[in-house]
Amino acid sequence: MKLFLDTANVEEIRSAVRLGVLSGVTTNPSLMAKEGDVSFRDTIREICSLVDGPVSAEAVSLDAEGLLAEAREIATWAPNVVVKIPCTAAGIETISVLAKENIHTNMTLCFSVNQALMGAQAGASFVSPFIGRIDDMGQDGMAVLGEIMDVYRSYDFSTQVMAASIRHPMHVIMAAKVGADVCTMPYKVLLQMIEHPLTSNGIARFLEDWNRLRIRARER
Fold first, then answer.
1. Residue 100 known to be catalytic
2. Boundaries of every domain in the chain
3. I want to staple 180 with a disulfide (CB 3.0 to 4.6 A). Which of 57, 80, 163, 204 is the partner?
4. The pTM is what?
5. Chain segment 132-180, per-residue pLDDT in tens
6. For domain 2-195, is the CATH number 3.20.20.70?
7. 165's torsion region: left (phi>0), alpha (psi -120 to 50) or beta?
């Protein structure tokens, strides 16, 4: 399972790239707004230059004509840009047209197996089930993700399933267990994946022992 970062913060992306584990980035209008008065195009182009993998940038029009115009423009920004399109009737229509034009898409705001099935049939490069938001509705987001993976495996769709709206490291583990192709997460969760109290305790113990050895060596 590939690990993506869900952020528009360039410094977070630089830090994740240095770890050598990052395969892509996803952004959305809310994440862009958090970064203040920034240029959408310039930020996406900078991220694309930093990341050796897909970078999702979202179109926001509500009709197919507007979505197509936005998507075609966004697709010119970088060779690794992927256009995020919402799972609506207009969005599905847009994805099907863009697929014929070889423009990569990420069908976002996916909450059901039916929606994921529609995205695959339309030719989306990725579909993004929002696990955390499904949980917020009182449903089991991981169960939905598992059902999507079962259907996709049955028909060998080329569309990749990207687990999104990730809240904590257990979401990442569970997404990997059900076979998600990608998991996109906040920078905080990526760092939490590295941390473990036994690792911290082990390092502290090793340092204590090393210091004792140095003291003994000086006393000889």
1. no
2. 2-195
3. 163
4. 0.91
5. 999 999 999 999 999 999 999 999 999 999 999 999 999 999 999 999 9
6. yes
7. left
